[in-house]
Structures are given as structure tokens and as C-alpha cells.
Design brief:
Blueprint (H helix, E strand, L loop, with lengths): L7 E4 L8 E8 L4 E4 L4 E6 L9 E6 L2 E2 L3 E4 L6 E2 L1 E6 L2 E6 L7
The chain binds zinc ion.
Zinc ion (ZN) binds next to loops.
């Protein structure tokens, strides 16, 4: 998974295409990410108990990893991310400007 929590990403598909936001959560096994303020849907909740009202709540749904692109912190463009090794530690880098992050 080349996207981490806290990354700024650009949405390249779906209803919020073109927008960008901060990654709130990553689901590595499911290859999905949740982004702040992106893919927000309204959900209607039925009243559970008597006297309680049904309400409309907003839920942020996760997106498939392939529908987002990382925004490079040095060239501030949506970029593809590569990995290279520095010693034993794998380091992410921008395929456009080669900056590491
Ligand atoms: Zn870059």
C-alpha cells in the first residue's frame, strides 16, 4: 500500500473526482482508503425505540486505492509513487520529481 494515513491525495474517479483531501484511515487488506470530506453519503436512520426520531446522518465511505493519487509534497501534483531502498529501509519517492517522503 503506497498510501499512508495523513497523506494528501487527489481523487481521480468517482463522485468527488478532482477534489483532494487528507487520508483519515487506510485499510491495507481491502486496498481502500477513507478521506476526510470525500465520498460523503447521507444515510437515513430509522427510529430504534418508540418516541425516537429517524434522522439523516452523513457517513464517509472508503474509496478504492486505485481511485486516488498521492499529491507530492514537493511538486504538489498528483503523482505515482515508487519505492527505493536506502540501506534496509524502503523509502517512498515521487516518480515525477524524485523527492522522497
Ligand atoms: Zn514530486
Amino acid at each position: 500500500m503506497r498510501i499512508k494515513k495523513g497523506d494528501l491525495v487527489n481523487i481521480i474517479a468517482g463522485k468527488d473526482k478532482g477534489k483532494s483531501g487528507k487520508v483519515m484511515k487506510v485499510y491495507p487488506v481491502r486496498h481502500r482508503v477513507s478521506i476526510e470530506g470525500i465520498n460523503v453519503y447521507k444515510k437515513h436512520v430509522r427510529p430504534r425505540r418508540q418516541g425516537e426520531k429517524g434522522e439523516v446522518i452523513e457517513v464517509t465511505r472508503s474509496l478504492q486505492r486505485s481511485n486516488v493519487m498521492l499529491v507530492c509534497s514537493s511538486c504538489s501534483k498528483p503523482v505515482r509513487v515508487g519505492y527505493k531502498r536506502e540501506g534496509k529501509k524502503p523509502i517512498r519517492y515521487c516518480k515525477k520529481c524524485n523527492a522522497t517522503f
